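As described in the Methods, two query proteins were run sequentially through the folding procedure within a single session, without resetting any intermediate state between them. The first query and its resulting structure tokens are shown here.
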Amino acid sequence: MMTISPAPSLVHAAFLAPRASKPKPTPTPTHGAASATAYAAGLTAYKRNDFASAIGQFGKAIGANPRLARAYYWRGLAHYALAQYSAAASDESTDLKLEPAYASAYFWRAKAYFRLGLYQAALDDYTRAIARDGKDEVSYVNRGLTRERLRDDAGALVDYTKALSLNPRDEVALVDRGTAHARLGQFTLAVTDYTGALKLDAKDEIAYFNRGYVYEAQHNYRGAFADYTRALALDPGDTLAYFNRGFAREGLKDYTGAIGDFSIYITRVPADGDGYLHRGLNRAALKLYTLARADLNKAVMLYKKSGAQTGLKEAQAALARLPAR
């Protein structure tokens, strides 16, 4: 069997999911009837997910009382809900100028910074939020993922572990800690975390996917195949799961099945040379040399177009190994 490249990277549990959205209770303003009325209307609109109206009402409250800190806070949340991350960060910053000890404003500004790709700024704000509310496990989870974006996997592991000490049933923290373990090469610990997460939520597609990846790294191809299959049953649209399952099938010497999975991947991602490369390798394993040559030539063409030198070299080497026509 020809040598194949490693499977693609792990994926993360949903970051900044609704469970992490924790706006704190806030008092009704007392500085003027106009600001209080608009503020209350803004909260009502926000709670019914009418975020555009909420932004307008909070703007009216701010116009009537520019020092109404929580109006900036809630308007920032409404901006965030509409993916207006720069505006969200700006409003949370104004809130923090008026009430610098408000942990939740740091939390939400960190979320906005993360979405903007400002990972160090997000990390700093999560740290400030934790300093003011050290029992919020979600801040630790989100800071952990931010650390991973900054390539600090060891620090991320510490944060996920702290989150789990605060809430041992935090399924997202278990999945993300499993991913940190996997990135550090601690595969047995990663499997333990993914399995624990699946005990809490048997329909967690990402936990199955990532555990499948780790099983593959451990050469447990049967376990990997089973987990990718479960992931696909939960989410048939997971294109990467087909790609990874192709590797598991190859490890099981099910070359025909691998070809099928890579073919599905190719139909969905036709511009990626990896699909053609690996389908060609499996066709070669079945001595389907004409079809293998066609796939490998297609891979070479796509790799040249994309500038992917590693894949190009592998496809060219695989072509050179094929028997002469």
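Immediately afterward, the second query was submitted; its sequence and tokens are:
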Amino acid sequence: MNMLDCLRPLSLTSAGMMRPRELAFLFLLVATLSGCWLERPETSYATMAEAKERGAIARGWIPDWIPASATNMREIHDMDTNESMLAFDIPASASWSLPADCRTVAFSDIGPPGFSRSWWPTAEEQESSYDFQRCAGDDPHAPMLQWVGRHKSGNRGLHWYAYPRQ
């Protein structure tokens, strides 16, 4: 069976039912795809106000200390591991107060996000164009940390929850 066989219409038995093999394939395909979408939802918000209105802050996927002037927000999170990733634009003049426990770290010390997305800057861009902070996570019993990056131009922000490098 080659990949194009998957694209042909599903054939039916003489009784008008799908064949068991095709039904099993269809079930596995739907279960796999829905699992990916349900376990790792990805969302966009035009503004921080929209993110708040839609409950992203209350559910903990976006911290409430992200500047109110943030726009063009892209967020993904994993429902099982609680890892998340957020990128957003902010005016270069925006005031941005990080939590008091945040500390400046080198790029080589950050815990990388658990996702790969086209809207996230490459490692090379992060290393050359961003300044980073490590902040304590929300759960004192979990090793997960918050990481924050701000573009050196001041107009792009990153936030993610990830585990420290081992």
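The helical segments are 20-39, 48-53, 123-129. We note this only descriptively and draw no conclusion about the first query from it.
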